[in-house]
Design goal:
This protein is of the alpha+beta class and about 350 residues long. The protein is built from twelve helices and ten strands. Helix 2 (about 25-35) packs antiparallel against helix 4 (about 55-90) and helix 5 crosses helix 10. The protein is rod-shaped and about 135 Å long. The two termini are about 85 Å apart. The protein binds phenylalanine. Phenylalanine (PHE) binds near residues 252, 258, 287, 288 and 311.
Length: about 350
């Protein structure tokens, strides 16, 4: 085939291929095949050595003309294809602003916070003020004013972290009783939620850091029946009308008489189950009538005033409410667990 024929053949082929291209990649392939270093036109140029010397300039010019023509055609095609591709991409990437977006993942409050807020709502509804106080507490408030002088054996049950001989991490929220009595005048009705500390090993039911909510009422004529009535309302608000309280005699140096208070097990409604260990009751707080000695130490006339106090453990309530079997889960902060609580 003569060079002229080959050139015509190439032009025709390229012309028809350009019309059926399906994207810039196939255009690039065509460009390389025809105009590339190992392409058909280059091959023709290389073959010119076999031509008679006088033919060479003419053929060379023809080849170059075709090269220019092909380049122009391909550039045109490229512009066309790119425009079409951009158009298609724009269509494809159009954002439908009316489409509902997926809801963002919303966290939830910690189970302890949920329970704490619920108790605060319950007691503020009964006329209690919320007071907060230091977790790093003076031995004086944490123990002495709670009628636990140095070397008192009941201190053993509340071993804690000592900063020095006089500064401790509070072992209960009870020092807030003293702080309230020393700064307020009766009638006093306060609750004090917060973190407390004891030198305990971590296990499924113990943690060296946990939460309590103290309650204190001091007024004239405050009686044990007021304590019972208040806790009965608390129990029913928290768990429902069929829940009641059970008082068991107990001992705390700062209350006299003292009682541990159980609530009907909400899981089995008192029948007895694994959670309440078959007793039908769940122990949730310690309580009692404020020891007159404590009133006096805190500057309150015990011949005129009396009071009751209670300390509620929040972990146990949260664990029971949300079916959390192991206390450690409360402090691990696993979003898969807490995300379900709302
Ligand atoms: N402070 C006691 C405890 O931590 C609970 C308590 C509070 C008992 C108030 C009686 C009155 O165990």
């Amino acid at each position: 085939m003569s060079v002229v024929d080959t050139l015509r053949d190439i032009k025709e082929r390229v012309e028809s291929e350009l019309n059926t291209l399906d994207g810039s990649a196939s255009l690039e392939n065509l460009r390389v095949k025809v105009l590339g270093k190992k392409g058909e036109l280059t091959a023709l140029l290389k073959g010119m050595g076999q031509l008679a010397p006088e033919e060479r300039p003419k053929v060379g010019a023809q080849i170059n003309e075709v090269r220019q023509w092909l380049t122009a055609r391909m550039d045109e095609a490229q512009a066309r294809i790119q425009a079409a591709e951009r158009e298609a991409a724009l269509k494809r990437e159009t954002i439908d602003v009316t489409e509902p977006r997926p809801l963002p993942k919303v966290g939830s409050e910690h189970p302890i916070t949920l329970v704490m807020n619920e108790l605060i709502e319950c007691f503020t509804g009964l006329g209690f003020d919320v007071m907060e106080g230091p977790e790093v507490e003076l031995d004086h408030y944490n123990f002495e004013l709670m009628n636990l002088p140095k070397n008192h054996p009941a201190r053993d049950a509340q071993d804690t972290f000592y900063m020095d001989d006089n500064i401790v991490l509070r072992t209960h929220t009870s020092p807030m009783q003293a702080r309230a009595m020393l700064t307020r005048k009766p009638p006093i009705r306060i609750i004090c939620p917060g973190r407390v500390y004891r030198a305990d090993e971590v296990d499924a039911t113990h943690s060296p850091v946990f939460h309590q909510m103290e309650g204190l009422v001091v007024d004239e004529h405050v009686k044990m029946s007021d304590l019972r009535g208040t806790l009965e309302v608390f129990a029913k608000k928290l768990y429902g009308e069929d829940v009641t309280t059970r008082f068991r005699p107990s001992f705390f140096p700062f209350t006299e008489p003292s009682a541990e208070v159980d609530l009907t097990c909400v899981n089995c409604h008192g029948k007895g189950c694994r959670i309440c260990k078959g007793t039908g009751w769940i122990e949730v707080l310690g309580s009692g009538m404020v020891n007159p000695k404590v009133l006096e130490m805190c500057g309150i006339d015990s011949s005129k005033y009396s009071g009751f106090a209670f300390g509620i453990g929040l972990e146990r309530i949260a664990m029971q409410r949300y079916g959390i079997r192991d206390m450690r889960l409360l402090y691990e902060g696993d979003a898969r667990l807490f995300g379900q609580l709302r």
